[in-house]
Design goal:
CATH architecture of the largest domain: 3-Layer(aba) Sandwich
Number of strands: 15
Bound molecules: NADPH dihydro-nicotinamide-adenine-dinucleotide phosphate, ligand LGVNKYGP
Oligomer: single chain
Order of helices and strands: EEEHEEEEHEHEHEHEHEHEHEHE
CATH superfamily of the largest domain: NAD(P)-binding Rossmann-like Domain
Largest sheet: 7 strands, mixed
Strand content: 25-35%
Radius of gyration: 21 Å
Shape: globular
Length: about 325
């Protein structure tokens, strides 16, 4: 008999999530039936979208927490997935899972000798978000200026590095001096500033006096409104996420509404969800693997240890205390 630990949402979040919004349950799992496999989590991902699922009412009190994990098959009644196979799947915040519908898991992408946890970072959902959001939505040309906020984060740090690979000038910001130092000195972004300690409008004027062609936006809100006047004619904006609003409570500020700037500058804004390109993930992962092996893409992980730490890891995303992709090592 295997005992699984599984996190549920006990209380829907109000503002920034708190540790006691979650509850860790223990459950005894049944024996496997034909065709089923037992997955044991090795690495689990926490991501900002999990916060939005609560705001959108898709996760309610008592719901199991959802999310991706890298797991190993420890028992199997399926010929396709023998014991010892490493898989990735949306199995939730839980230590052990019986999987009956095997379409919920798949083999890891080719990883060579990279750590398996990278299948949740640059080789996984956050890396693919950076890859497709930048290359498909913004389609940057050599010499263009690409602005990315949350630039030391799991998505933002990869956006900036791919933009450098493509010959762009990268302007990025982050919320601490350590993060800024990393993306400037180790990742080689061209202009970096701490958005918490500067006047954003002034920093953008200085960083991109001729304007910004491409803006990869992870934050939205006032940040985005401030960027509009700094965009070049026909500028492109990829709306990836809204870190500044996920924990908002009550009526939201109603302005500024820079619609005329959007019109006069003929800007193109496009929201996207990374799964739009699901069918193209495999070749993108091969290219990402190559870049990592060549040292063109560097990454940072922010590791928490033990499934008990999942709420802490999740909350770190909204405090900005994470530095790199937040991964829980089971
Ligand atoms: N559209 C899609 O398909 C996907 C979208 N996303 C989005 O990408 C974005 C980045 O995600 P990810 O890379 O995983 O997370 P990060 O690793 O970037 O971590 C979140 C970071 O956001 C910053 N932050 C937190 N609160 C605020 C705030 N109130 N205002 C501004 N910045 C804040 C902090 O960085 P700092 O210290 O620099 O402030 C924090 O470290 C998110 O918006 C997420 O929702 C992610 C995956 C898929
Ligand atoms: C799949 C993730 C989506 C966001 C908005 O984070």
């Amino acid at each position: 008999m295997v005992r699984s630990k599984a996190w549920i949402l006990e209380t829907p979040f109000h503002g920034i999530p708190k540790e006691d919004d979650f509850k860790l349950l223990k459950e005894d799992l049944n024996d496997l039936k034909d065709g089923e496999v037992l997955c044991e989590a090795l690495y689990l991902s926490v991501d900002p979208y999990m916060r939005s699922l609560v705001s959108l009412g898709m996760l309610k009190a008592g719901s199991p927490m959802v999310g991706d994990q890298v797991a190993i098959i420890t028992e199997s009644k399926s010929r396709d997935y023998p014991v010892g196979t490493n898989v990735i799947g949306r199995l939730g915040w839980r230590s052990h899972t019986i999987v009956s519908d095997l379409t919920h898991i798949k083999l890891l992408p080719p990883m060579d000798d990279l750590p398996l946890s990278l299948a949740l970072g640059p080789m996984g959902m956050t890396g693919m978000t950076a890859y497709f959001g930048l290359l498909e939505i913004l389609d940057p040309k050599p010499g263009e200026t690409v602005l990315v906020n949350s630039g030391a984060g799991a998505v933002g740090s990869i956006v900036g590095q791919i933009a450098k690979i493509k010959g762009c000038r990268v302007v990025a910001c982050a919320g601490s001096e350590d993060k800024c130092k990393w993306i400037k000195e180790d990742l080689g972004f061209d202009v970096v500033f701490n958005y918490k300690t500067v006047d954003l409008g002034e920093a953008l004027s200085e960083a991109a006096p001729d304007g910004i062609e491409c803006f990869f936006d992870n934050v939205a809100g006032d940040f985005m409104s401030t960027v509009f006047p700094h965009m070049k004619l026909y500028g492109r904006i990829a709306c990836c996420g809204t870190m500044s609003t996920y924990n908002a409570v009550g009526p939201q500020p109603s302005g500024p509404h820079p619609y005329m700037t959007i019109v006069f500058k003929q800007l193109r804004l496009e929201g996207f969800m990374v799964r739009r390109w699901w069918g193209k993930w495999s070749p993108a992962q091969v290219e990402m693997l190559q870049w990592i092996k060549e040292g063109k893409i560097k990454y940072k992980e922010c590791l928490f240890h033990g499934i008990e730490t999942m709420p802490k890891g999740f909350i770190s995303l909204f405090e900005g205390s994470n530095f790199g992709k937040v991964i829980i090592k089971a």
